[in-house]
Amino acid sequence: MNTLQLITVLANFSAFLVYVYLIWFVLNLNQKELLNRLCALAFVPFAIWSFAFTFLHSSTSLNVAKLCMNVASIGWCSFPVFAFWFYSAFSHHEKLLKSKSFIATCLLLAAFFTYQQWNGNLIVDLLRQPYGWSSVWAISPKSIGFSTYYILFVVGCMYFALDSERRSNRVRERKQARIFYVSALVSLILGTMTDVILPMLGVGTIPPLADVFILLWAVGLVYAVKRYGFMGLTPATAAEDILSTVADSLMLIGLDGKIVLTNRKVHDLLGYTEEELKGKDIVSIVSGIEMTTVVESGGVYSNETTFLTKGGEQIPVLLSGSVVKDREEEVVGVVLTALDITRRKEMEQELKASEEKYRTLVDHALAGIGIHQDNRIVFANQRMATMLGYTLEELIGLPIADLIHPEERSAVLARAQKRQLGHPEPETYEIRLLKKDGSFFYALISNGLIEYDGRVATLITISDITDTKARKELEEANRELEAFSYSVSHDLRAPLRSMDGFSQMLLEDYADKLDDQGKDYLRRIRAASQRMSQLINDLLTLSRISRADMHFEELNLTAMVEDIAAELRQSQPERDVKFIIEPNVRAYGDSHLLRIVLENLLSNAWKFTSKHKSAIIEFGVKKRDGKTVYFVRDDGAGFDMAYVDKLFVPFQRLHEQDEFEGTGIGLATVQRIVRRHGGTVWAEGEVEKGATFYFTLGE
Amino acid sequence: MDRKFVLLVEDSPDDVELTLRALSKSDTTAEVIVAHDGVEALGFLYGTGAYAGRNTSVMPAIVFLDLKLPRINGFEVLERIRSDERIKLLPVVILTSSNEEKDLIRSYELGANSYVCKPVDFTEFSNAICQLGLYWLFLNESPMKENE
């Protein structure tokens, strides 16, 4: 065996060994991945080929050489197919591989040409050369067919590689495709030259080393796979990916506290390069870290600390660590992740500042501010406590009912409850608030719904309006009105008494000196002064009603009406009047004032039915537009609806004095009381058919 | 000296006239001393001013006191009477035009023995005064006697 032959043989054999190694290596990278399997499969023909060529070139007998060439043909006839499969899978044309007919065609083609070679139809002879054997190719349709098959599949591979390089938007995949393309092209051109073209041209002096050249391709493939991985997510590539792309800073630290690995985020954050960091002691970067603490924490270590950058700047970070163990479950290092919390720290600071601002605002507000939930005070500022005469401690937890003037309590509580249920209720209104010592003051209260402790609550703001200008003016006006009424009550009546008294004296003492007309005049003076007195009384009543304090409570109107009806009957027992009173009519209002309303309406009905022989007076309640409407109806004199507007005007009368007595103040009084209850009053009537008076009370 | 008499504190001459007339109708021949304002009333009771030298051991059986008076009003007069050891037991009837509830309550608070609102109707007025005169002068036992 000469030197040249030995080189050829050794080259082939080493190529075989490399192929076997590459198959093992690729499968070992990731056995389950289709691409790895196909890659390994593509190497198998080359391994067979180079193994057979080792013996081919070392054999001396033509027959042995031919047998070796036939064995090698299993490799060189099938590799285009397997390579094509690999390239189609790599370039996302897996669909081809799913087609059974395609697979079968490929395998049949490979088998067909192998069969042709075994029958001596492709390489027809082998010539003894100094390096071993050179091939003599048949020039026949079958050999041309083989060339076509071979070229088609190889071009197909190249096309897929190019296509993939062009189309993929992943850098890694594009780089891989480029390697696949270039390595294949170089090795195939060289291999085709030495093994096919030169022999076909009759040049046998160059050794056929296609299988060796193809090694370039194989190594290219493996390098690409190893360097860039395949699309399939392998833990190794994933780890690398994660390491480079996570938003957190990530560092791998050895047990000695030296930095082993860092990701880009760390470099960005600290201003160091990867090289500068490698081997650096972690303590010089993370203040106050102790490796033993991290390791002893076992799995989870978390701590707020600061990073020291290259520029000497301190960055607040949230550091978490976990230990890394080897296969023997022994701790070999620590992974530290750091989250830059500069922004969070700033926000915390801002929040604290903002919270402090509002707290100061609430604490120093001139208004009382508080929150109530489930009818109890759950929060209050000092001002509110001071206004109500409690200490803050006493106020928190106090039922709000204790803070409201008893006369308004039920109405206010009902309103608060409705508001919390989502009904639209007035937000701001005047209220009398009760202090701890039992005294009360006028306040303006504003209510707003908020969420407190995850549930609905009411935020209240209270300002003391006892001393506000408007209230003072109102009180002043009230005082003046009171003084006026007082003076009316005293001074207007006294002259009337004189008029009446002296007229009477004249009638008594000077009766003989007066004729009938004179006496009649005196009687008229007396009647007028008495009527004036009645007017004054009614006027005072009206004014008193406007000022009277209201005491709201549940009332039984039916009982009141029955009472009044009995009184009316007693006053004129001879009259034939039938009362129809609806049982159990209830209302919420001031009992004294509502009694005045009913007295006025019923005595009106009584009065205006007096000219009829018999009468029916009715009292009841009905619903109109969802509102409760009370009514008093009679079948008496009635009135002309044209004058309905004048009914409620004080001193306005629709009947003449000697027809029906009255001062014209009753209905005005009724209207004022009803309005003070938040309701309205109106009337319907017809002359000689009766009248109906309706009224509502605020809900 | 033993005769019972009335102290009428009233600023309106008309009302004085009407009251006197009503009393004269009631068959009581009781004397009526009229004071036209609070100062005069107190002067009579203490024996000062126009009444200086009056025998203050002689006291009226009843004081008819109007509330609205010039200078010192009825409430003040009542207050002074009730705060003075010598005359605090003197029966005082408030006789006024006012039917204001607060006047009524204040009068009783200050220790009035009775409160009568003067009716405008003279007939009613007469009746009221007659009854008052009869009651306070003849029916009622005055504690002031013991002082005499």
Principal-axes geometry of chain A comes out as elongated
Q: How big a fraction of the residues of chain A is strand?
A: 15-25%
The percentage helix of chain B is: 25-40%
Structural class of chain B: alpha/beta
Biggest sheet descriptor of chain A:
5 strands, antiparallel
The overall strand count of chain A is: 19
Report the mean per-residue pLDDT of chain B as an integer. 86
| Rg value of chain A | 56 Å
Main β-sheet description of chain B: 5 strands, parallel
User: What is the average per-residue confidence, as pLDDT of chain A, rounded to a whole number?
Assistant: 84
Q: In the CATH classification, which architecture of chain B applies? A: 3-Layer(aba) Sandwich
CATH homologous superfamily designation of chain B: Response regulator
Q: Uncertain regions of chain B: pLDDT < 50 for 5+ in a row? A: none
Shape of chain B: globular
Which short descriptors sum up this protein?
heterodimer, A: 699 residues, alpha+beta, Beta-Lactamase, 5-stranded antiparallel beta sheet, 20% strand, elongated, B: 148 residues, alpha/beta, Rossmann fold, 5-stranded parallel beta sheet, 5 helices
How would you describe this structure to a colleague?
The complex is a heterodimer of chains A (699) and B (148). Chain A folds into five domains: 234 residues, Up-down Bundle (Rhopdopsin 7-helix transmembrane proteins); 101 residues, PAS domain (Beta-Lactamase, 2-Layer Sandwich); 103 residues, Beta-Lactamase, CATH 3.30.450; 74 residues; 148 residues, Histidine kinase-like ATPase, C-terminal domain (Heat Shock Protein 90), CATH 3.30.565. In chain A, 54% of the residues lie in helices and 20% in strands. Chain A has a five-stranded antiparallel sheet. In chain A, strands 9-8-12-11-10 form a five-stranded antiparallel sheet. A five-stranded mixed sheet of chain A has the order 14-16-17-19-18. In chain A, strand 1 and strand 2 form a beta hairpin. In chain A, helix 19 packs across helix 20 and helix 20 packs antiparallel against helix 21. The longest helix of chain A has 41 residues. Chain A is elongated and about 185 Å long. The longest helix of chain B is centred in the last third of the chain and has 18 residues. Chain B has one domain: 3-Layer(aba) Sandwich (Rossmann fold), CATH 3.40.50. In chain B, helix 4 links the parallel strand 4 and strand 5. Chain B is α/β, with parallel strands linked by helices and 148 residues long. Helix content of chain B is 39%, strand content 16%. A five-stranded parallel sheet of chain B has the order 2-1-3-4-5, sandwiched between helices. In chain B, helix 1 crosses helix 5 and helix 2 packs parallel to helix 3. Chain B is built from five helices and five strands. Classes of the chains: A alpha+beta (699), B alpha/beta (148). The interface between A and B is medium-sized, with 24 and 20 residues.
